[in-house]
Each structure stands twice: as C-alpha cells, then as structure tokens.
Specification:
Blueprint lengths: L1 H10 L5 E7 L9 H6 L4 E7 L6 H11 L4 E4 L8 H21 L7 E6 L6 H9 L17 E6 L2 E5 L11 H9 L10 H15 L1 H7 L4 H7 L5 H13 L9
Parallel strand pairs: 1-2, 1-4, 2-3, 4-6
Antiparallel strand pairs: 5-6
Helix pairs in contact: 7-8
Length: about 250
C-alpha cells in the first residue's frame, strides 16, 4: 500500500481530475482517508457506485452530503446509469482550462483523469462501461486490478486506473465489518460464518421486514426465535433450513 501511495502521488502531477469511487451501500466505510489527503487541491468527482444495490432515498441523502466536498454523482456500472453524466461533467469541469490552452495555441489538449478507490468498489466495471470496452479484468473479489493502466474514455480524454488502496488499520469494528459484508476484505482474513452472523444482526435491526419476506419467515416463527438464548444463531439455522443449506444428521 505504501508503494501504491507513492506512485499515486507521482502520477497526480499529470492528472487534471480525480474520480473517487465509493460503494453506495457503505459510502463512509468505503472512503480511504488517505485518498482524501492525497488528492487535496485537485479537481474532483465523487461517484456513489453500485447504486442499484443501495436504497435510492439514502443515495440521495449521501449525494447531498458529499456535494459539499465535490461534485457527486450516482452511478451503476452494470446498467450504465449515470455514466454519460460523468463524461459530460469531466468536459464541463475542464472547459475553462481548455479554452485557456486554445488561446495559447495549444489545441486538442488531452484531459487526464485518475480513478481511485478501495478494492472491490467496482473500478474495473466502471472503466469498461465508460470506455465502452471490456478490456479490464472484472471480478467480485478484492485485488483484481494489480497495476496501473491508461484507458481512453472519450475524445481527448484518458483515464488512469490504479490498484485499490486499502488502509492498513481500520478506524472501527463497524468499518471493518461493512467492508467484509461487501466483499472488500478477503475471505481468508475473516471467517465467513462470523461475517454472516454479524450481517444478520444488522438485517434484523434495520431491514427486518425485508429479511422475513426474503426467506419466507412468518411473524410467529420470528417471535418464537426471539425467545431463544442466541436468537441470531437460531435465525441463521432457520434460514439454512429454508434454503436447504443444512445437512441432516444421521444416527449410526
């Protein structure tokens, strides 16, 4: 990570605009504070990516909050939502600078954009969509992008992709869990059963109705489970049964 940060600082000298890509489901937890410091003073666009996986009303609230810092757009790289607006925003932000360059006799200035974000936030999918190519390797796991590379995204516009930058120490357990829930932390670092257990507690607290509907759990079943000593574990067992994911025990 230290090497990546040094390279970013060096590359920023060539960059006109920085795009910071966040996960719309966990905007705060998916922000590396180092990126905010590294890009201080640069023209910037914040993207709330994977918006289709988040609550639309909450997306709007986050967009309004982040607008105080930089232009903030909502995007979904899979469907292409918001992508054209990103291209138009890049052009609009550089319009004055390009005009100055023309007056100096420098025509067709190339706008250089850098995209930054933590692992598994959707950078490769976003680049494939905005460049209308499929040259970037995409995967639903962290660490797919291993090296930086330039990609043309429009007339006189180039985008520099960089490996995901994950900070070495998390500020809180909540941040670590949010990153684990969304697949940013590798499976071999945190036990999957523990992640599922903690995520289930969040669902019960914030999205109980959706949870019960998703797994066809009746109010009576749920109320009965709440009487158990470990209600969360009992709920995990019930969900496992309903999904056919539990092996039956045999008595020899």
């Amino acid at each position: 990570m230290a090497k990546t940060k040094r390279e970013i600082l060096e590359d920023l000298k060539l960059i006109d605009i920085v795009i910071e890509l966040l996960d719309a489901r966990i905007p705060n937890s998916s922000r590396n504070p180092d990126i905010q410091q590294l890009t201080k003073g640069k023209k910037k666009i914040i993207l709330l990516n994977k918006c289709d996986l988040a609550d639309e009303k909450i997306n709007q609230k986050w967009q309004k909050t982040l607008e105080k810092e930089a232009i903030t757009l909502v995007t979904d790289s899979n469907s292409g939502k918001g992508i054209e607006k990103v291209l138009k925003t890049i052009s609009a932000m550089m319009e004055e600078e390009i005009e100055k360059q023309k007056q100096r006799g420098r025509m067709n200035k190339t706008i250089r954009v850098m995209i930054l974000g933590i692992p598994n936030v959707g950078k490769s999918s976003f680049i494939n969509r905005i460049s209308k190519k499929t040259s970037m390797e995409v995967g639903n796991k962290p660490g797919v992008t291993r090296k930086k590379q330039w990609v043309r995204i429009g007339k006189n516009q180039e985008l520099l992709d960089t490996p995901g930058v994950l900070w070495p120490k998390f500020e809180s357990q909540e941040v670590a869990l949010n990153l684990a829930f969304t697949g940013t932390i590798k499976d071999d670092i945190m036990e999957q059963v523990e992640i599922a257990y903690e995520l289930l507690k969040v669902f019960v607290q914030k999205y109980q109705k959706n949870l019960l509907e998703r797994y066809k759990i009746t109010d009576e079943e749920f109320s009965h489970l709440q009487k158990e000593e470990n209600a969360t574990y009992a709920l995990m067992q019930l969900i496992g049964q309903k999904r056919g994911a539990l092996k039956s025990r045999r008595n020899d």
